[in-house]
Description:
Layout: H1 3-16, H2 23-27, E1 30-36, H3 44-63, E2 71-77, H4 83-96, E3 101-104, H5 108-121, E4 125-127, E5 140-142, H6 151-159, E6 169-174, H7 177-192, E7 200-205, H8 212-221, E8 228-229, H9 235-246
Parallel strand pairs: 1-2, 1-3, 3-4, 4-5, 6-7, 6-8
Helix pairs in contact: 1-3, 4-5
Amino acid sequence: MQRRTLLKAFALSASVMAIGLSFQAYAADTIKVGIMHSLSGTMAISETPLKDVALMAIDDINAKGGVLGKKLEPVVVDPASNWPLFAEKARQLLAQDKVAVVFGCWTSVSRKSVLPVFEELNGLLFYPVQYEGEEMSPNVFYTGAAPNQQAIPAVEYLLSEDGGGAKRFFLLGTDYVYPRTTNKILRAFLHAKGIQDKDIEEVYTPFGYSDYQTIVANIKKIRRRWQNGSGLHHQWRFQRTVLQRAG
């Protein structure tokens, strides 16, 4: 994990712990903090480090005296990369464990799975990564960038002279809401910049997919230079290696 990411996580966690707490949370001996990241399944390789950083931040805060004179107590659950299970674990943390706040999710589909639970029980979720936008809830603190803050600036650069003056784009993503929504936004943006549909290729793969050699072969076949990938998660490490080897 990059040093900057780690420092940001510490700073964010420390500031969040200082927010106003409910009377129930304040009256307890400790302040419970829910940590809801997949520790098994497809997303474990991405989400486990977030759990580790949250625990490190909690240890650091506790070593300095805690919050409002109380120690933070982490409550860790494993939704196991199972989207319906995310909702069950969210309800468990809020209704049974009585946590004051939850740090959790990674994929947008997991966030959308738990959102009704947080709104029903008036819980607070800190969502750690970029998201596709088109959603706003007082029960979610969206810490990451939306497409207009991340994907569009990247494409603007690729279109520029400094970025190579790209004329054709290959939009590659995992088949779920974040990549599809982001690519929908990118396609509209590219249209506004004069890029036609015939110069935009869009491909989606299932979670756990690894046959990127076939995708690279198809890119070469149609002689289109790969320009942009979205919906990145654990597969990106493998995907990037294949693309780099292919030139």
